[in-house]
Design brief:
CATH architecture of one domain: 3-Layer(aba) Sandwich
Structural class: alpha/beta
Bound molecules: pyridoxal-5'-phosphate
Oligomer: single chain
CATH class of one domain: Alpha Beta
Number of helices: 13
Distance between the termini: 44 Å
Shape: globular
CATH superfamily of one domain: Type I PLP-dependent aspartate aminotransferase-like (Major domain)
Strand order of the largest sheet: 2-11-10-9-7-3-4
């Protein structure tokens, strides 16, 4: 949409074009949370409106409602997304310069915290589901043996659900961590909706994680940037969390954003069960439609069942992970065809496309999506080609991220950088999971994976903007 010089005008025009948003934010541009969020409500800390960083009035009441709804000891509003919450939670739980255990597939905000806090991470790499080539649940045994091997670990961090919707057994992982007195932080950015119907399960607050960060904007009706931080148990001091939230968040939080979190919480309190009952029914109807797919496959939907994925503890039925493996379509081609038919998905990867649903979808929006997917399925052909996801070994580490960020750098073409120390991260966005981070040595295997992503037409991002052709490496070594 070129040719606009006014962002709000461009947004209004896009909205008028009628695209079906199969992506976040979870409000899906409906006014479910209330239609009145304009300029005239945007204020600062005026008398009577409380103060987020020293809440004692309506903001405190709202955060107490969040804690009650989710069952945590204490909840905080976040206005800088889960990203700000993750930075604050890691600062509150991991002493500066300490060792932590983290899933390699964590969001870049976790890596940013590693950098700022000079942490030394040990990485855990969960298994890959063979049929959809998607990262499976993190096995509790993997956490247990890593903690036994590294008794100096001060924090465990993982993502559940993953961006693709795979949920880990948080209760078992929390028990393993707590036996060693180590706090568990769960990045539940994609799981704020897991608490309101039995068809959605595996919420990390209920399962006993010490710190849980949720983007309410991703899967619930709330404005972009809004999120929640929960703390419970006796391993993390809520005051420390409050302190670091004031470090990593603005001192002028938007009342519109906080108002939208409050509205969302009240909606869940009063209408949550009914909304989610409808949502589940609509998803079940969608599933029956997707059973007719002949070439495209949707993870844990349609003809595919969660029980087939023995490495999954659970799966979020709100996610539609559409695999193009074994067909003559690539992920970018499928996305282009969806867009031509007025559907905007959440993410495109070389061999899959992700669409997000929410309780703001209706029987009609999901039927519109199903009809288009079935039409496109009819246009593509099976090639039978098996797909094996390349899983290059973790690259050797020469420096911590913080150390590597201090080194003088030099730009190099990607292929000439093999064997050199990375001075920046590379990632696909979304989901913003780094493929290689500063301080690691760039291997030929990783360059091959990066090349494959770029060749498929999916954009690679880097701090310097040189990707996919070039990278910044340490000038020496
Ligand atoms: C797994 C995960 N964690 C954290 C974040 C950051 O969330 P936010 O965009 O609310 O800052 C994202 C964003 O995509 C994510 O996918």
């Amino acid at each position: 949409m070129a040719g606009y010089d006014d962002l709000l005008e461009q947004l209004a025009q896009y909205n008028a074009a009628g695209f079906l948003p199969m992506h976040m934010p979870g409000h899906k541009r409906t006014a479910l949370g209330g239609g009145e969020l304009p300029w005239q409500l945007d204020i600062t800390e005026i008398d009577g409106f409380d103060n987020l960083h020293e809440a004692e009035g309506i903001l405190k009441d709202g955060m107490e409602l969040a804690a009650r709804l989710y069952g945590s000891a204490r909840a905080f509003y976040l206005v800088n997304g889960s990203s700000g919450g993750i930075l604050a939670a890691m600062a509150a739980a991991a002493p500066f310069g300490s060792r932590i255990l983290m899933a390699r597939g964590c969001h870049k905000s976790v890596y940013h915290a590693v950098e700022l806090l000079h942490l030394e991470p040990y990485y855990l790499t969960p298994p890959v589901d063979p049929s959809f080539a998607v990262t499976a649940s993190l096995p509790p045994k993997m956490v247990e043996s890593a903690l036994a091997q590294h008794p100096d670990i001060r924090l465990v961090v993982l993502t559940s659900p993953t961006y693709e919707g795979v949920i880990s057994d948080i209760a078992a992982i929390a028990a393993v961590c707590h036996r060693q007195g180590v706090p568990l932080l769960v990045d539940e950015a994609h799981g704020a909706h897991l608490y309101f119907h039995p068809s959605f399960s595996g919420g990390a607050v209920t399962a006993g994680a010490d710190l849980v960060i949720q983007s309410v904007h991703k899967t619930l009706p709330s404005l972009t940037q809004t999120a929640l931080a929960h703390v419970q148990g006796n391993l993390v001091d809520p005051q420390q969390l409050a302190h670091f939230l004031s470090v990593f968040q603005t001192s002028s939080p938007s009342y519109l954003l906080m108002g939208s979190i409050h509205r969302c919480l009240k909606l869940l309190e009063h209408r949550g069960p009914a909304l989610f009952a409808d949502y589940v029914q609509n998803l079940q109807r969608l599933d029956r439609r997707l059973e007719s797919l002949r070439h495209l496959r949707v993870l844990c939907h349609g003809a595919d069942h969660c029980s087939r994925h023995t490495d999954f503890f659970a799966f979020d039925p709100g996610k539609l992970f559409i695999s193009t493996h074994g067909t003559d379509l690539t992920g970018p081609q499928l996305t282009a065809l969806l867009r031509q038919r007025g559907i905007e998905p959440e993410m495109t990867a070389p061999h899959w496309v992700l669409a997000m649903t929410s309780c703001c979808d209706t029987a009609e929006t999901l039927e519109r999506f199903a009809a288009v997917l079935l039409e496109l399925d009819g246009l593509c052909h099976s090639t039978g080609a098996p797909y094996v996801r390349p899983t290059p070994p973790l690259p050797p580490v020469r420096h911590t991220i913080a150390q590597a960020r201090q080194l003088p750098t030099v730009p190099l073409p990607l292929t000439e950088a093999i064997g050199r120390t990375m001075a920046e991260s590379l990632w696909m966005y979304p989901p913003g999971i780094p493929l290689v981070v500063p301080g690691e040595i760039l291997t030929a295997d990783i360059v091959q994976v990066l090349g494959g992503i770029a060749d498929s037409g999916v954009q690679l991002h880097s701090d310097s903007g040189l990707a996919p052709h070039g990278v910044l490496v340490a000038a020496t070594g």
